[in-house]
Write a structure and sequence with these properties.
Number of helices: 2
Shape: elongated
Order of helices and strands: HH
Distance between the termini: 8 Å
Structural class: mainly alpha
Radius of gyration: 14 Å
Strand content: under 5%
């Protein structure tokens, strides 16, 4: 139970920098994707996986 909540919270925290960066520096058409956006996207994907696993643990038992 506690592990599930920790995974969900950690996953949400990992997604926050991507959301903040996206709204502070929107991508213009034709602009290359860039290293920073790639790293932040990777963090968001890891965070999403943590949220999914946490939710499965929470709902599963």
């Amino acid at each position: 139970m506690q592990l599930a909540i920790v995974l969900i919270v950690l996953g949400l925290i990992l997604g926050l920098p991507t959301i903040a960066y996206r709204y502070s520096r929107p991508r213009r058409p034709g602009e290359p994707f860039g290293h920073v956006r790639t790293v932040l996207l990777s963090l968001s994907l890891i965070g999403l996986l943590l949220v999914i696993v946490g939710a499965a643990l929470y709902l599963g038992g």
